[in-house]
Amino acid sequence: MSLLSLRWAAMGEIDPMEHPDTLSDCGGNRKERCMQPETAIHTTALNKHYGDVHALVDLDLDVYVGEVFGFLGPNGAGKTTMIRTILDEIRPTSGKASILGMDTHDESVEIRRHIGYVPGDLEMYPSLTGRDTLTYFANLRGGVDWSYVETLADRLDADLTRKVGDLSSGNRQKVGLIQAFMNRPQLLVMDEPSSGLDPLIQREFQAMMREVAAEGRTVFLSSHTLSEVQRVADRVGIIRHGVLIALESVASLRSKAMRRVELEFGSQIDPAVFDSVPGVRDVLIDNHRAVLSFDGKMPILLKALADRYDVIDIHTQEADLEEIFLTYYRDEEVAG
Predict the structure, then answer these.
(1) Are 328 and 238 in contact (CB under 8 A)?
(2) Is the pLDDT score of 318 beyond 80?
(3) Phi and psi at residue 232, in whole multiples of 5°?
(4) What value, to the nearest 5°, has the Cα angle with vertex 296 and ends 294 and 302?
(5) Nearest by Cα to 121 from 172, 68, 161
(6) What's 276's DSSP letter?
C-alpha cells in the first residue's frame, strides 16, 4: 500500500456506503457540518519536539478563509512537520490547532471531509491507472463530479489512462493535484505541490489556486519555490528552525524590501550626502551617477538629494520575494 493511500486510510475516511446521509453539495461533498469560519487554520503555541530537536516552537498562526497563504522555508525549517501536526498525522508536544473551526485531533475525521491534501512525499499505487486512482479516492469521498475531474485533467494535461508506476514524477504529481482539487474542498493543504511540473503547467496550477480563493475557499501552500508564492499568495509566513520569523502580506514584505536605486545627477556628487538618509546602504559613486541599496522612504531620499543636486534621472528595481526571504534569514543569523 502506498504512503498516500495509507495516510488517507489512517486519517479515518468513512465508507460512503455505510453513511449515505453524509453526502452533500456544500462546497465539499458531505454536509454534517458545513462551516465557514473566519479562520481556516488556527494554531496556538503549537510545539513539536523530537528529543532535543525542536521542529516547531510556539507556533501561533491564523490562515484566513478565502486567501492563498504561502508557508516558506528551506528544507528542515519545520514546514512539513507543521502540516503533519495539524492534519493529526503526528501529535504535537504541546499546543492546540483547529481547521475550519474544528479541533485537529478531536474532530480529525470530520476535518478530512472538507480538505484536499497533497503531501510532499506523494506516492500512489503503481499498478493503478490515474483514473483508477482517482476513482479510489472519489469512492472514499462519496463520489465526485467527473466532468470537473475531466476539466482538471485537461487543464493540467494529465493522462489518466496510464498506470501511475509508468508516469514521470511530474505526471504523477498531476494526478495528486487532481485528487486534492476534485471534491472542491473548503481548504487545500499542499506541501511542495509544484514538484516536477513544467513551467506551463505550473502557471495553470497557479491560476487554479487563485480561482479557489476567488470562490471563498482557502489554500495553504507550503513551498520553497519563491517565485510561485510571489505570484499567487495573499500572505506569507516565513519559518526558520521551527520558529515563525515573519508573517505579512506579500505587498507589505515588498514595501519593506531593500531596493536597488540608480540615480543620475547634473554634476558630480559627494557620497556624504547619503549619510543622513535612513535606509541607505552600499553606495557606489561613478562621477555623476550613484547606485545604492535602499529600504527607507523614497520622499526622504529624494528631498535630501534635491536640496543639493539636480536629479536628472532615477531608476528603482523592486526586490523580489527571494531577496526578501534571504534578507530575513540573514537578519535572523545576525540576531542569533
Answers:
(1) yes
(2) no
(3) -115, -20
(4) 85
(5) 172
(6) T
The CA-CA-CA angle for residues 46, 49, 53, to 5°, reads 130
The three cell numbers of residue 220 are 495553504
Burial of 1 per CB tally in 10 Å (0-12, 13-18, 19+): exposed
155 alpha-carbon distance from chain centroid: 21
pTM above 0.90, yes or no: no
CATH number, domain 258-317: 3.30.70.100
How far separated are the first and last CA of the chain, in Å rounded? 44
- Is residue 169 a contact partner of residue 195, using CB atoms and an 8 Å limit? yes
Q: What is the pLDDT of residue 74?
A: 80
Cα–Cα dist 11/74, whole Å: 27
Ramachandran angles phi, psi of 180, nearest 5°? -75, -40
**Cα gap 296→285, rounded to integer Å:** 19
CATH number for the region 3-250 comes to 3.40.50.300
Strands 68-72 and 218-223: parallel
Q: Which three cell numbers stand for residue 254?
A: 515588498
Amino acid 299 reads P
Strands 259-265 and 280-286: unpaired
Quote the Cα angle for 53-57-63, to 5°. 135
- Does residue 264 contact residue 96 with C-beta atoms inside 8 Å? no
As a whole number of angstroms, the distance between CA 124 and CA 130 comes to 9
Q: Which residues of 5-38 are buried (b: 16+ CB within 10 A; e: fewer)?
A: bebbeebebbebeeeeebeeebbbbbeebeeeee
Question: Could you tell me which of 194, 195, 220 has the C-alpha nearest to residue 205?
Answer: 194
Specify the amino acid at residue 97.
A
Most confident of 18-32, 147-161, 214-228: 147-161
Residue 141's nearest CA partner among 89, 172, 179 is 179
Segments making up each domain of the chain, as ranges:
3-250, 258-317
Position 282 confidence tier, pLDDT thresholds 50, 70, 90: confident
